[in-house]
Specification:
two-stranded antiparallel sheet, 7 strands, single chain, Maf protein, alpha/beta, five-stranded mixed β-sheet
């Protein structure tokens, strides 16, 4: 089973809808998920916000986040995820800036690093090398979703 089939299966089983905010992936995450038959059962939308202006306008990221933390940071990814969460009724939102991804599920923001190939096993986020995935030191970052 492919990664996108696994994600689709888990979303369908829970009755969840997913929304994405992508930057450097340029929409490829959405493409991989919507190319599967029946994706409307679990996929809500994707916003590709590559530029700083797009993140500000489309996702409502506070300009101070860029000034304090830069474009590729846990804080920026969380601001993107939280902005998209405010715009959609999706149950789960993923946002990525470069190597940093954030997940928001009904208001909870958790860091997800190296999201491509990541697995969720026994409540513990695992990276592509089957090691526990790092959560960073941001105060809003908790266990992986």
């Amino acid at each position: 089973m492919s990664l996108e089939e696994t994600i689709a299966t888990h979303l369908r089983q829970r009755g969840w809808h997913l929304a994405l905010a992508e930057t450097t992936t340029g929409g490829i995450m959405a493409v991989r998920l919507v190319r599967l038959a029946g994706s409307s059962a679990y996929f809500d939308r994707s916003i590709v916000a590559y530029s700083k202006e797009a993140k500000l306008q489309s996702l409502g990221v506070d300009p101070g986040v860029f000034e304090r933390h830069g474009s590729v940071s846990i804080e920026t990814a969380c601001a993107m995820a939280e902005g998209l969460h405010r715009l959609t009724q999706a149950d789960m939102v993923l946002a990525g800036t470069g190597i940093v991804w954030k997940a928001v599920h009904k208001g909870f923001c958790g860091a997800v690093r190296r999201i491509i190939g990541a697995r969720h096993e026994g409540g513990q986020g695992r990276d592509i090398d089957n090691r526990p995935a790092a959560t960073g030191d941001h105060p809003r970052v908790g266990p992986h979703v």
